[in-house]
Design goal:
- The complex is a heterodimer.
- Chain A is an alpha/beta fold.
- Chain A has one domain: Rossmann fold (3-Layer(aba) Sandwich), CATH 3.40.50.300.
- Chain A is 36% helix and 28% strand.
- Chain A has helices spanning 42-50, 72-78, 95-100, 108-121, 124-127, 138-150, 168-183, 196-199, 219-228; strands spanning 2-13, 16-27, 31-36, 57-62, 65-66, 80-83, 156-160, 187-192, 204-209, 212-218.
- A six-stranded mixed sheet of chain A has the order 6-7-8-3-9-10, with helices on both faces.
- Chain B is mainly alpha-helical.
- Chain B contains eleven helices and two strands.
- Chain B has helices at residues 2-32, 39-56, 61-84, 91-113, 137-159, 161-171, 173-178, 183-205, 216-230, 235-255, 258-275; strands at residues 127-130, 133-136.
- Chain B has a two-stranded antiparallel ribbon.
- Chain B is globular, with a radius of gyration of 19 Å.
- The chains are: A alpha/beta, B mainly alpha.
- At the A-B interface, helix 2 and helix 3 of A face helix 6 and helix 7 of B.
Chain lengths: 232, 288
């Protein structure tokens, strides 16, 4: 049974249709990649799953529960972690406060356990613990954003363009961290314009274009399509 | 020299009072994006609740101060939850709502207590003197309570889950919600915290200054001036600016007479806005 099932999802911004009846399924433990050019509808899909944009049609079912009436802030509680496109860390909060904001109300014991584990994945969280996140580099901010999303130990981790605009050294480090999330059993749904680093992590993928899912398949199949469409 | 020292301590005392008011005002603006025109009303209400508790119910003054703080916090919580929250993204509507609430508070106070100042005296009198420096005891007590309240507020905002969540929502509400932070729960609490501080200040200060309908208006003006000077939405800026305003008022009033103080402050704010429009510690872009 799928952990996440999207069926006929449609998103409209005013008169513009951003997603046109897409269907996606993600099974527990998988890492699924949505690949496509700018404007393909990848971020709209992620934002709809977390509840930041309303669906104009279709269904999003997480762990058997239809999310239609579940507000954004309660979706995180259901077990969905979210690292948005462009990082969007809380700039005035320290690195530690940024991370712990992802575990509000979960108790000191949970917060300590999460912080200990995240510090082992991202040593940066110790080195820069008290620094305002707004002062970090792009790669460092991405680590903070992913750690924040993981702090509640979600079952599904949504990563919107985690490698966007990052230097190869940061891409390597973030890839290693995502691999550790996978080892922990976290299901990952990620989007990427430039698919090469993401394909190394994914088990399956979908190719999106013009608000629609054009193809789906294994990593090898997606790599071929991505090569042909110059996403690599 | 003793005059200089007395003015400094009085200035710090005034600054602590202004800091409590301005911190509440900027807390609401920084986190909710709401300009709370009722802030002076909560200050006035704090004074009247404390007066009623002391004169009407016979409560001890310290208990009356606590009741005033809790009552104004409760009213702020209800106001945010029932009226502000549904319109939270409409800045004009929330501004008009808070202005309306101020008018309601003023009118109710006027209807119940009349237009005359209440005889509401601070329970401790006399002065403390060290050498040639004389300081009223009530001012020192108010200063101590205000500093404790500022420290408590700092602890809440920077050492608790609640404070962290409020600061996160102030930085980026949408992403905060996506991390599971609940504005419908947290915004009324932030509002209550701010109005409780205004009520506390009113209960502490009105026995020293005066308690009459309309005492909230200069308080709103000073709060506004202070947060603009400090930088809209900046807690550190509001606290810093409050002490600057307090010291400027104290020194100008001692050396040049009372009315010059307001003039100096307005000129200071005007110059600051020309050369540094974001205020002392403000940011270019507001997060909330």
């Amino acid at each position: 049974m799928s952990l996440l099932e999207i069926d006929g999802l449609t998103i409209r911004y005013g008169g513009i249709t951003a997603l046109n009846g897409i269907s996606i399924a993600v099974t527990e433990g998988e890492t699924v990649l949505l690949v496509g050019a700018n404007g393909a509808g990848k971020s709209s899909t992620i934002n709809a799953i977390i509840g930041l944009v309303p669906a104009a049609g279709g269904r999003i079912v997480f762990d058997g529960k239809d999310l239609a009436t579940v507000p954004c802030e309660r979706r995180a509680r259901l077990g969905i972690g979210f690292a948005p496109e462009g990082r969007r860390v809380f700039p005035r909060l320290s690195v530690t406060d940024n991370v712990l904001s992802g575990a509000f109300g979960l108790g000191r014991a949970h917060q300590k356990q999460a912080l200990d584990w995240l510090c082992s994945v991202f040593p940066l969280l110790i080195e820069r613990a008290k620094q305002p996140a707004g002062q970090l580099s792009g790669g460092q901010q991405q680590m903070v954003a992913i750690a924040r999303a993981m702090c509640s130990f979600p079952r599904l981790l949504l990563l919107d363009e985690p490698f966007l605009g990052l230097a190869p050294v940061w891409i390597q480090q973030i890839s290693a961290a995502i691999a550790q999330m996978k080892q922990r059993g976290t299901t990952v749904l990620m989007t990427e314009q430039m698919a090469r680093p993401a394909l190394k992590l994914a088990t399956r993928g979908y190719v999106m274009r013009g608000g629609e899912v054009r193809r789906s398949g294994t990593v090898a199949e997606i790599r071929e399509i991505a090569l042909a469409d110059e996403y690599l | 020299m003793h005059q200089f020292l007395e003015a400094a301590i009085i200035g710090v005392g005034l600054g602590a009072q202004y800091a409590l008011l301005a911190l509440g005002f900027t807390l609401i603006f920084g986190i909710l994006g709401v300009v709370n025109f009722a802030h002076g009303g909560f200050y006035m209400l704090g004074g009247y609740v404390a007066y009623t508790c002391v004169a009407g119910l016979g409560l001890a003054y310290p208990l009356a101060v606590v009741v005033a703080m809790l009552a104004t916090a409760a009213l702020g919580w209800l106001f945010e939850l029932l009226l502000i929250e549904p319109l939270i993204d409409d800045h004009l509507a929330t501004l008009m709502l808070s202005l309306g609430l101020y008018l309601i508070i003023s009118t109710v106070v006027l209807a119940i207590f009349g237009p005359i100042s209440m005889e509401f005296a601070f329970p401790v009198t006399g002065s403390f003197h060290a050498g040639s420096v004389y300081l009223p005891r009530e001012n020192l007590i108010v200063l101590a309570v205000c500093l404790v309240a500022i420290a408590c507020l700092w602890l809440v905002l920077f050492r608790t889950d609640l404070g962290r969540a409020l600061r996160a929502l102030a930085d980026d509400r949408a992403v905060g919600m996506a991390q599971g932070l609940r504005p419908r729960l947290l915004f009324p609490l932030a509002f209550a915290l701010a109005t409780g501080l205004a009520g506390l200040t009113g209960a502490l200060v009105t026995p020293i200054l005066s308690l009459a309908p309309g005492v909230g208006e200069p308080v709103l003006a000073t709060s506004f001036l202070t947060v603009i000077l400090g930088g809209l939405g900046s807690l550190g800026g509001a606290a810093l600016a409050a002490f600057i305003v307090g010291l400027v008022e104290a020194y100008t009033s001692v050396y040049f007479g009372g009315s010059i103080g307001a003039l100096v402050l307005f000129v200071m704010v005007l110059l600051l806005l020309v050369f540094r429009p974001t205020g002392l510690l403000g940011r270019d872009v507001r997060g909330a």
